[in-house]
Batch of 4 targets.
Target 1
Amino acid sequence: MAQRKDKSQAMREKILNTAAQLFIHKGSEKTSMQDIAQTAGISKGAIYHHFKSKDEIVFAVMRSRQEMMEEEIKQWLKATENLTGREQLQTILKNNMGSQTARAIDGILGEYEKDAGFILTMMRDNLRIGASVVSDIIKKGMADGSLQTQYPEEAAEVFLLLVNFWMHGAVFESEPERLPERFHFLQFMMTSIGLDIFDDELMQLFSQKSKH
């Protein structure tokens, strides 16, 4: 019985990992159940044995990737603990933009940008996972003099919402040529409240990400 359960769990994880990789490269909207089955080398029936629909797979991938994201953040925090608050926040931002886990989540957002309930859940989860982390880094920066703001908790929440949702062209629609203006406004706004973290390298990474 235990062996059968282990095989079932292994198959479920194989399906989710395959789907996540396809979401990264194609987006969830353009990924079909047949694509997942063919890439995983299994039948569509095997997928339907574990998941009733593609939506169920999408939400399962999202949950698993959020858990992975939390673990990655813990690792990044440990690896950057000797940096100043400003340097630590910059490094974690750069790591996040290069993260395959974060890209899988982005690949899902594109399909559900019109689903208000889904986006609201995503926003809440994003703040739940990241707000206290960013706030603690800001406070660290305030203590070491690299960052200064009167509202670390509020700044952390606004920062996450803007970076992860407002800057996402699919969620808050924007013409591609307008995105650089958003980048520069975000840089201006964060600097004006004492969070001067958007250096040239970060701005370039944001620009490159928006083109994918």
Note: The longest helix spans residues 116-144.
Target 2
Amino acid sequence: MIAEVSDALVDVIHQATPDLAPWVLQHSLSQGETSPPTDSKGILALLAVEEHEHLRNAPLVEGIAGLVRPPLALRLHYLVTYWGVHDEAQRRLARVVQAFHTTPILRASDLQPPLADQVESLTVRLAPADHDRRNQIWGALGRSGRLALFYDVDVAPVPVLEREGAGRVREHRLDYVGAP
């Protein structure tokens, strides 16, 4: 499902920039990656995946095996950069900002299967990245820093795998015996 989210983000950029040939590709940007980034290409790199902290304690939901854990909400962290001339990078990244500012929420009806069947929506937000954080990210990737955008994408929900025979709580009972 995570790869499909990345594909959906690339699709949003390409749909918003029809005057440019498909110009964004997914890449880890890690120096250890076998194929280096191609010149004159936009790069979408997934940096991290974490549980969405505000949706962590949702109540149990009804499933085929009874009450089960609620769907897991994720927050995905992306870096978007342009591998090429700096002036062109500014123009291309401005188009990315425009694309995600115009379409910050992708509903299931906007997404392709199987992602559309798995999530209710994707929310894309420009994430702040101070100088230290940018340096840490580029250093961890083993590359020199480049002009880049950072985005957080909220994905909800990721359902649990349901299993038969997991059991169901039928009754809660407390007995209290008073003192004589």
Note: The longest strand covers residues 72-83.
Target 3
Amino acid sequence: MKATQNPPTAVQVTPADLLRMAALYLRRHGWHQGTYYHPTTDTPTPPACAAGAIGIATTGHTVEHFSQLAPDALGDYLATLAAFVDYLDTTYPLFLVDDDGFVIDEHTSPYSWNDDPTRTAEQVITALETAADEWDRLHTTGGENR
């Protein structure tokens, strides 16, 4: 690039991009269950759950609750979490049912799914990557957004 050329100022980051970044974060820094992040104070990059990794991918730092996000980051976080939930609904349906057998929540909770005692880090990472591929399949044509 020549010094007189202006580099692009805005790149559209998609939910698929953030899902892949969350998967990469978990590969590099570890996976966690029970809370967004492993309770540690000695690193800015603690092991994270799926939702915590999506938060870090969105903001670049840990976020204890989505209400702490700026409006534009909140939109990106919620869209990415929704894309992950859509994937989980079709691949790992896990619905909450009350004592009378009625469905309490019609969507798979990414928190409950992540915290399932039989869940593994590789399953979570693979699900994030596959959800990204699915988002791309549904929303892009030849690498361009639809």
Note: The two ends are 29 Å apart (CA to CA).
Target 4
Amino acid sequence: MRSPIAIVDVDRPDTWTRYRAGLCATCAANCCTMPLEVQLSDLVRLGLVDAFEAEHEALRRIAKRLEKARLIDHFNHKHALFTLARRASGDCQFLDAQTRRCTVYDQRPDTCRLHPQKKSPKPGWCPYGAQAQTRR
């Protein structure tokens, strides 16, 4: 008798797997299909905003420029958080579609650096799964 295939849904943390060392080595980058909120410092590290602009320009103006360039989808002024734009597939704009690896790994945002241990809808858990079903 076959065991049922576990379906992982990035929008349903109750389907996620508890994080363990080495989990990312065999992952299909499911976390890279979730909306990604970043701070201004992350945008500077990614090269989307230069340090002079970050220091001298109003956040709303920066957000307006980034939205026009389709680099962000949303700006939350209250919390000073930018939501990075994603591809039509739902993938992060910095995810290589072929290798499913981050193309800006060394410059990746803090949210990515701390996922899933600290920054996650369910800290300590990950939307890992070879048979993952993501919304696209």
Note: The chain has a mean pLDDT of 83.
